[in-house]
Design brief:
Structural class: alpha+beta
Number of helices: 3
Low-confidence stretches: none
Distance between the termini: 7 Å
Helix content: 25-40%
Number of strands: 4
Order of helices and strands: EHEEHEH
Shape: globular
Largest sheet: 4 strands, antiparallel
Oligomer: single chain
Mean pLDDT: 92
Length: 91
Amino acid sequence: MARKIFAVVLDEPQPKVEERIEKNYARPHRYTDTFYLLAVDQHVSTDDAAIKLGIKGTNRDATGVVFKLNAAYSGFTHKDLWEWLSDAAVA
């Protein structure tokens, strides 16, 4: 089944959010200490992820934003990012 990819961008490094990412998502990609990529099932919304990570909702205790990527990206960076994106798209 094809998956969606979300980008999580935090306002500053937030260890509690990183712990939640590691606990709730299989094989997340930590690009920097404020930028993560998540592969999620098709039914998961950005709101769902933001609430689960604590950056939205009544239990919010962190700041940041969740974006849904549309499979359009370009640039030059570490090979592991491109490999992760390729693997996540077909997982």
